[in-house]
Every structure is written in C-alpha cells, then in structure tokens.
C-alpha cells in the first residue's frame, strides 16, 4: 500500500515548511510521506536547521523547492498544508489538484528580531508548535494511530 503524500507549502520554503516536512517524516513516517515547497523558493534558514538539530533531526542538506515545479511534474498529494502566518496569508500559495487543503498559521522565523540565541529560541517555539499540530493531526488521518506517534 502506497503511503499518502503531504505537501507543506509556505512562501520561501526556507523554515516552516521545511520543519513540517522533516517533522512528519520523523514522527509519522510509517503512514505518511512529506515534502515541502514554496512560492518563491529562497535559501534554507539556518534558524530552522538549528532548531531541528536540537531535537536530533538534520535538515542541513535540504534544498528549497518550487511549488510550481511540483505542479509541473504533476505530483499528486493527498494533503496540501499551507503553513504561512496570518500576515502572509494572502500570499500563501494554493496548490491545484484534488488534495485536501489545510491551513496552519505559524510565525515566520525570517521575521524574528534579536540575537542569534533569541531568534533560535523563537524558532524552536515555532518548531514545537508545528510538532504539536502534527502530533494532533497525524492520528486523525492514519488508520493505525500508534504508528503515527513515532519518536518524540
């Protein structure tokens, strides 16, 4: 049986969508396959890399991807989850197709101010919010919920 695919989308595919992709593949890989993309792919945000490293997940080699490339390649997704914040909501892309569309609003780490440590701390909070959302969501779509709980 092929696992349902989920696509996480935000503006630059540099932090929130990358963390969400990695978290689903870390927490629920038995039941889902996650990817991510952005409307205007940028560079991987080092804050996201550090926040994920702190929980033992290495995304340092991840590449940002374009949502338009995913569309042009006719990739099929069961779920498309936008993770833009409320302020960027109007720019948050829509991925065409039959996928169930979901919106989760998370603050954008690229907008955080302060020292490196302060920005990492805020990004870690966003990571934890995303992880909590995934932990709540995964059992609702996975037929065998215990397989979705995975490592913490």
Question: Your description of this structure?
Answer:
With 152 residues, this protein is α/β, with parallel strands linked by helices. Helix content is 38%, strand content 13%. The chain is globular. The mean pLDDT is 86.
Tags for this model:
152 residues, alpha/beta
Order of helices and strands: EHEHHEEHH
The 3D shape can be described as: globular
Question: Roughly how many Å apart are the termini?
Answer: 26 Å
Annotation, overall tally of beta strands: 4
Low-confidence stretches: none
Set down the secondary structure blueprint.
Elements: E1 5-10, H1 16-27, E2 33-38, H2 46-53, H3 67-72, E3 79-82, E4 100-103, H4 116-141, H5 145-149
Parallel strand pairs: 1-2, 1-3, 3-4
């Amino acid at each position: 049986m092929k696992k349902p695919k989920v696509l996480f989308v935000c503006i630059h595919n540099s932090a929130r969508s990358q963390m969400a992709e990695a978290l689903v593949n870390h927490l629920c890989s038995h039941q889902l396959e996650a990817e991510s993309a952005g409307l205007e792919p940028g560079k991987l945000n080092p804050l996201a890399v550090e926040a994920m490293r702190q929980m033992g997940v290495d995304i340092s080699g991840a590449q940002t991807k374009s949502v338009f490339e995913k569309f042009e390649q006719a990739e099929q997704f069961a779920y498309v989850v936008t993770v833009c914040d409320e302020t960027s909501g109007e720019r948050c892309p829509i991925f065409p197709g039959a996928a169930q569309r979901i919106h989760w609003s998370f603050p954008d780490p690229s907008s955080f101010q302060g020292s490196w440590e302060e920005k990492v701390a805020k990004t870690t909070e966003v990571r934890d919010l995303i992880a909590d959302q995934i932990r709540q969501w995964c059992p609702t779509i996975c037929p065998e919920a215990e397989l979705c709980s995975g490592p913490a």
